[in-house]
UniProtKB/TrEMBL annotation:
The keyword Cell membrane does not apply. GO terms for molecular function: hydrolase activity; ribonuclease T2 activity; RNA binding. The active site is at H65, E119, H123. Residues 1-22 form the signal peptide. GO terms for biological process: anthocyanin-containing compound biosynthetic process; cellular response to phosphate starvation; response to wounding; RNA catabolic process. GO terms for cellular component: extracellular region. May remobilize phosphate, particularly when cells senesce or when phosphate becomes limiting. PROSITE patterns: RNASE_T2_1, RNASE_T2_2. Belongs to the RNase T2 family. CDD domains: RNase_T2_euk (cd01061). This is Ribonuclease, RNS1.
Amino acid sequence: MKILLASLCVISLLVILPSVFSASSSSEDFDFFYFVQQWPGSYCDTQKKCCYPTTGKPAADFGIHGLWPNYKDGTYPSNCDETKPFDRSTISDLLTSMKKSWPTLACPSGSGEAFWEHEWEKHGTCSESVIDQHEYFQTALKLKQKTNLLGALTKAGINPDGKSYSLESIRDSIKESIGFTPWVECNRDGSGNSQLYQVYLCVDRSGSGLIQCPVFPHGKCGAEIEFPSF
Ligand code: 5GP
Ligand code: 5GP
């Protein structure tokens, strides 16, 4: 009888313990990433001014804003690990591509490092169970290459020319070319017109492939939005 009881105890511990541990680790983990790209023309033509990076005016192309771990319920973790500050030496091989693909437009002008540091510390540290600092930045750069947003839009006749386009045509052209429906975020230009500001795509937990978004962020664009030049 004692042996039977003891083995029952062992068996129940074996069943219960793993679920306790997985519950506690998943509460610090995440389900997918938003890969967010910004249109520089829409960052710069608002009432708040922008500043070009110290390296000069960026290309007239979408730039990376960030790669953001998220939960399926729409909430997200942030600032997950103070013991892993941004360390430029871990990404020295990526700096040339970072300056090109992840330019900063905030004032005062900077090299981009303050922006990258912010994104790593707020968002990147929450994906450490899957990718390290080098992989975090490399993953974002690869995603940028893989998803040629401007190409997808211009192929459909949607150009950064200050004209208005239907939100539906913008979404459809990206879906047509990239295979997944994006989330489009708008902001307002200096005169108050709604315009194409950021495009969100969803990426699986490993950072290797695009997926259909499990949940979209909140916010609203008009049915017709401007695509300003840069
Ligand atoms: P805003 O309030 O301007 O939309 O967002 C401010 C910042 O909050 C973003 O730049 C980003 O760092 C964070 N943020 C906003 N929405 C989301 C979201 O849906 N997921 C994640 N992971 N971060 C978000
Ligand atoms: P998030 O909105 O991702 O939490 O924070 C963005 C932070 O990065 C802000 O503090 C903002 O000033 C800074 N930042 C630097 N460069 C840029 C840029 O080009 N675009 C955006 N959206 N934020 C930038």
